[in-house]
Amino acid sequence: MSNLDQHYKQILAELGEDVDREGLLDTPKRAAKAMQFLTSGYTTSIDEVVNGAVFSSDNDEMVVVEGIEFYSMCEHHMLPFLGKCHIGYLPNGKVLGLSKFARIVDVFGRRFQIQENMTKQIADAVTEVTGCRGVGVIIEAKHMCMMMRGVQKQNSMMRTSVMQGAFRDNQATRNEFMRLVGL
């Protein structure tokens, strides 16, 4: 049994569970494996997920990838938050392979996180990888820490945005992005 398995077993016992009952025998191992997957963003680099999929392009018009589904874990309560991420950028001689946007979102989503920081981390990564003239990232998410405990508001949703470069400096660019993602 790994150290992480042992910790889960101890947590279950502290909560008053019989860790030797049939339904819980393998739970510490399964929980440890699940947590390692849910936090795999700590051991995955942006270079690894981009894997050279940055291509020369003379396109200088806005590129938008919307509705990238994700889940993450709240760093305050270790409960999930999940939703959609919308990314727009203005290429500057290079474009990024389409699937790489989802992979970048996953790298930052699979960490203990707050949504505000995740939004900025994604924007920074897209800018760093592409050298773009501007980027906009909007995340819309439901937080289990607000739905399952505390105020228990089932229909609340949090929206965060980060606008950099032309998306921050040029209102028309920002408006075009917002219109394209339906906001």
Describe this structure in words.
With 183 residues, the chain is of the alpha+beta class. The protein folds into 2 domains: 3-38, Orthogonal Bundle (GTP Cyclohydrolase I, Chain A, domain 1); 52-180, 2-Layer Sandwich (GTP Cyclohydrolase I, domain 2). Helix content is 41%, strand content 27%. It is built from 8 helices and 7 strands; from the N terminus they run αααββββαβαβαβαα. The chain has helices at residues 3-14, 27-38, 46-50, 98-109, 115-130, 144-147, 166-169, 171-180; strands at 54-56, 63-74, 80-90, 94-96, 112-113, 134-143, 158-165.
Structural class: alpha+beta
User: What order do the strands of the largest sheet run in, or round the barrel if closed?
Assistant: 5-2-3-6-7
Taken together, the total number of domains comes to 2
Low-confidence stretches: none
Distance between the termini: 49 Å
CATH superfamily of the largest domain: GTP cyclohydrolase I, C-terminal domain/NADPH-dependent 7-cyano-7-deazaguanine reductase, N-terminal domain
Mean pLDDT: 96
Helix amount: 40-55%
CATH class identity of the largest domain: Alpha Beta
Radius of gyration: 20 Å
Sum up the overall morphology in one term. elongated
What is the name of the CATH topology of the largest domain? GTP Cyclohydrolase I, domain 2
Which architecture name of the largest domain does CATH use? 2-Layer Sandwich
Strand elements, count: 7
Please indicate the percent range of residues in DSSP E strands (runs of 2 or more).
Answer: 25-35%
DSSP helical segment count: 8
